[in-house]
Amino acid sequence: MKELGTYAPNTWCPGCGNFAILNAIKSVLNTLNAEGLPLENVVLVSGIGCHAKIVDYINVNSFYSIHGRVFPPAEGMKLANPNLKVIGHAGDGDAYGEGLEHLIFAAKRNADITAIIHNNRVYGLTTGQYTPTSPLGFKGRSTPFGTKELPINPLELMLSSGATFIARGTSHGIELLKKIFKEAILHKGFAIVDVLQVCVTYYNVYEYYERRVYELKDHDASDYNQALNKIRQWDYNSDAPIALGVFYKKDAPTLEDRFYKDFAAKDNIDRYAKIKKVLEESI
Amino acid sequence: MNDFSVLIGGKAGFGIDKASLSIASIINQLGYRLYVYRDYPSLIRGGHTFSIIRASKEKIAAHKKGIDFLLALNQDTIIWHKDKLTDNAITIYDSDSIKQETLPPNRKAVALPLGKIVKEENAPEIMRNTCIIGALCKVLGASWDILDGMVRRNFSKETDLNLKIARRGYDEAKELANIEPLNQGKLPLLTGNEATALGLIKAGLKTYIAYPMTPSSPILHFMANFCEEFGLKVIHPESEIGVILMALGFSYCGEKVAVGTSGGGFCLMTEGLSFSAMAELPIVIIIGQRPGPSTGLPTYSSQTELGFALNAGQGEFPRFLVSPGDAEEAYYWTQVALNISWKYQIPSIILTDKALGEGTYCFDINLVKELKEEMPALWDRKGIYKRYMHTETGVSPLTSVPDKDAVIKVNSYEHDEYGITTEDPKETNKMQEKRLRKETYMNEELKKYDTLKVYGRKDSSTAILCWGSNKGVCVEAAKNLGLKVIQPLVLSPFPLEQFKEALKGIKKLIAVENNATGQLVRLINSYGLNVDEKILKYDGRLFSLEELEARLKEAAGEGIRYVRA
């Protein structure tokens, strides 16, 4: 068991849901390492926000990106070297707001990366504004009289965009989180885990979730329609049971599979000779 | 006739572009040097499109206003261009769609019933081009063999039919001009965009990423066409934001990568640019300029992004910025840009424009100094790896994932040597100074290169100050008028010493720029220097040689040494 910690002082609020994600991912990395995954092949990518500090706290390769831009660099890395295990940590502002376009495209391409969304449904680091998954009427510092717009259901969006692994966990269920993270990381293709991570300071809905969450049972994750039904059960707005676990899982060719099928690295070619040939043909 | 221009015009969709390259290819076989200027609107069908193919004994990189051979595929071409015809100009026109009475008076003309000919041969409309080119060949006095060779090279589909149509045009016309073949070696015809791509490939580019945008899309297309040949990864992602961030993912893995766009796309890339500087991830960005603000004139040319490229991105950081003036410079300086970017782990920006990118030149590789691919300073594998280790030069040795001995952490936040976020004031200062220090060493190294070039009469007290694609027209005008030309190629870090040296003995400095405010002038203003006159053009079109000479005469006044007839 490797410590995997760094000397960076942890600055999350006491009780922050991010601790569960940190502990779960460290534990999963250790397990995967023991099962043969070289840790040097792992790259953690993060956006900007409270969630993103996670990369400072784990002693593996990391790419601390900018707000909303978690998935394009992750895809770039995988196309540069398909042997890497790239795990993208993003907040709900990152993934579903500023960088929604990239999320949809990563899913559409079925890039072989894992997206872990620290979805606390509030902007924490900027001190409490609504996000794309805050419920209608959410009162934040930019919307003191309540939001006038409905939240999106990100998992429904991911299903229709082509994600091949879709799951949900909470920051108050670390054993389930570990199980889902491990399965998501091992999944070949675009895997998204929406983690209902409680922000104790700006949007503490711990009790709300506790009363509504349940673990998926007798659910066929290979069935698109079953997945859609379970994903639609809760719309991130109205009161409804909130399912946890793996909604959808499908084997499909990845971006890297398709890309490398047609690509052959040519490190030993004489580029200058080929350039001369191109020039010769342009006379 | 050692210097002549052919203009071919019609509607978008007539195949004017391909036709102009076919004409250039024919004249190239006669041993002439060429420059092709393309003028087309932002649409797929209709409008008026034309190309000017200028041929000269000398190497050229500018077009002339005066047209010696007008090839008109429709009535508009006559209306638009008949005033540009020289006294001995010859018009070759489609007599099926152009009224004879609209032709310019007192000039020779060749009537070709193009519509009738393609109909008789059961050929598609687009082959009217081949027919009119056939006629031009005969008019120029070029042999059938040259035409036959061109058709076989350029038309892999329907070769026989094209040959038949070309023959019809060739036989209908008479030899009217005496264009003597020149006894000099032929050169490849290359656009600035192609030269840019080849330079990057030569310098070790592994990956090219871009979102389509005029005038840089042809680089994307070229890279995509040649990806197998050179083992390149070529990717077209969701947006320019996606482009640059994806590229930084490649850069993190140690793969040499470049991106290309225009001003509008570069707007979206600026957060990525600033990130690359903070994270010290090497990247090359090509900006093909076109007139703005905003969408502006998408298919025309400008030099309006110098100020933007110099200042883009939040925060303060060094960048390498170069603006090549022709195909050879594009080929050479893109190599330097890629090398410098990796050597100093900084962003390199290559500022081109529509004129350079989509202009066709006779490319002489022998004029380009040999450059080697340079590798970044690599980690010596001693001790614990620190991605941002403090060093004398500010450059921290690199290693890339996966490395079993190193944890490689890059960060958009201010960070310590290991890449862990910090807000410590001392560390902040040290890191800011480390990044800025790289510029000092880069500046020193750049002294090995011709970062500024001087042309024309070295003893003239009047000089033209120009940059980028205006080089060609400025150098030629200066030659005719007896002026000196100063062309800074590298614009960041600005070659101030070389510039001051070039200014010695100059009493009148005239800036020539394709923008409305004088952006290079503003840059030299920041060093306490100024120009005496500004010649600015911002209608999206390029200076013709005649126009620039006239405006220079006006601006230079007494400074004009002599005027060549």
Describe this structure in words.
The complex is a heterodimer of chains A (283) and B (565). With 283 residues, chain A is an alpha/beta fold. Chain A has a single domain, classed as Rossmann fold, CATH 3.40.50.970. Chain A has eleven helices and eight strands. Chain A has helices at 18-34, 54-57, 71-80, 92-98, 100-109, 154-161, 174-186, 206-212, 224-233, 255-261, 271-281; strands at 42-46, 61-64, 85-91, 114-119, 165-170, 191-196, 213-215, 242-249. Chain A has an eight-stranded mixed β-sheet with strand order 2-1-3-4-6-5-8-7, with helices on both faces. Chain B has 565 residues and is of the alpha/beta class. Chain B has four domains: 3-172, Pyruvate-ferredoxin Oxidoreductase, domain 3 (3-Layer(aba) Sandwich), CATH 3.40.920; 190-367, Thiamin diphosphate (ThDP)-binding fold, Pyr/PP domains (Rossmann fold); 377-449, no CATH class; 452-559, 3-Layer(aba) Sandwich (Rossmann fold), CATH 3.40.50.920. Helix content of chain B is 37%, strand content 20%. Chain B is built from 19 helices and 21 strands. In chain B, the strands form three sheets. An eight-stranded mixed β-sheet of chain B has the order 6-5-4-1-3-2-14-7, sandwiched between helices. The longest helix of chain B has 22 residues, at 425-446. The model of chain B has no long low-confidence stretch (mean pLDDT 96). Classes of the chains: A alpha/beta (283), B alpha/beta (565). Chains A and B meet through strand 2, helix 3, helix 5 and helix 11 of A and helix 7, helix 9, helix 10, helix 11 and strand 15 of B.
